[in-house]
């Protein structure tokens, strides 16, 4: 089984590829609000994934070889509240700027990271069989 650091590197590559595709779509397509909504939603969702990753690193630091700051422990402690507020911020942006951001695209972008994680789990399960 791969460790969480390797999985996070794979997620970074996948998200970077999707962001490049969404940027190309934003620059070349007349559907700019939809692509910008996907970009905003995916970036906020990836930031949520990163906060979960950093919380996991802090929680599994049992050897004490690396010292974390108080901010890192606060980030880990308030992880759920931070993730919910990030999602609410993305939806708020889409509601305040409806001519620039499509609300449905922001929500799809927010959910896209979870589809990436599920696809990765299914592929890993298929490889083990």
UniProtKB/TrEMBL annotation:
Its main location: membrane. InterPro entries: ATP_synth_I. GO terms for cellular component: plasma membrane. It is found in: Cell membrane. Keywords: Cell membrane, Membrane, Transmembrane, Transmembrane helix. The chain crosses the membrane at residues 12-29, 35-53, 73-97, 103-123. It comes from the Bacteria. Pfam families: ATP-synt_I. The keyword Transmembrane applies. Coiled coil: none annotated. It is a multi-pass membrane protein. This is ATP synthase subunit I.
